[in-house]
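so my prof wants the structure for this chain in the tokens format not the other one, which i didnt know existed until like an hour ago. anyway here's the sequence
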Amino acid sequence: MSNEPAAANRDTSPAGNDRGTRTHRAWVVDAGRAETVLAGARRALFVMTGFLILIWALQLANYADGYNLTQSYGIMPRDLASLPDILTAPFLHVSWSHIEGNSGPLFIFGFLAAYRGIAKFFAVTVIVVLTSGFAAWFFEAPRTVGVGASGVVFGYFGYIIVRGLFDRHAIDVLIGAVMALCFAYQFAVLLPHQGIGWQAHVGGLLGGIASGWLLRERRAAQRESKPARATTSKDLVVDPSNPRAELYKQLDDMGL
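here's what i got, hopefully its the right format
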């Protein structure tokens, strides 16, 4: 997000446990079935390629229009009329260097966020767009216009870092750790900088972390043990040749 001046584990036995059985999710070490992972990676590649094509096409149109799209659809802090612009600002940029700087991290983090499921990825995207946008709308300086995909980038970044912990995927934990180390310099723009919408960055990062928790896999549900039903006379097969068959029938009729 950039600002420019406005124009202007424990398993219990089910026996004898009245509170039910409580199970904890086990850690998963492998990445999953190879064909499933590859299919997810292909979908993630197509989605992120389309995303980049979209923002670059908008950048061309924005540039040709003298960046009027930025002024018209960027976030103006605490302006009620600008609230809907929370949804459009991540697709706009203020310069070629701005979109170039966002495109690489956006593609990498977006791909890693999407390869485990496109539906979940879109849910993450909605959450981080809202959290980064509202952070910019509430906390950025007045008389500025906030645009750019960097808040979403930080949202994907936060999601990748924590997803493995919440889902108990060891591979995803490793991916998150590597990304955190490789892009540690990005944390510098979480601090106040003149002309940089760091508030949107922080909001996006928090939204990504929240997404990791809200969208975590729930592989282990609580199960309550059911006591075995006592065998009754109704469960017995009555053989007509049995001399006690009539007695059984009378007991059944009496509800015994």
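also thought this was worth mentioning. The chain has eight helices and two strands.
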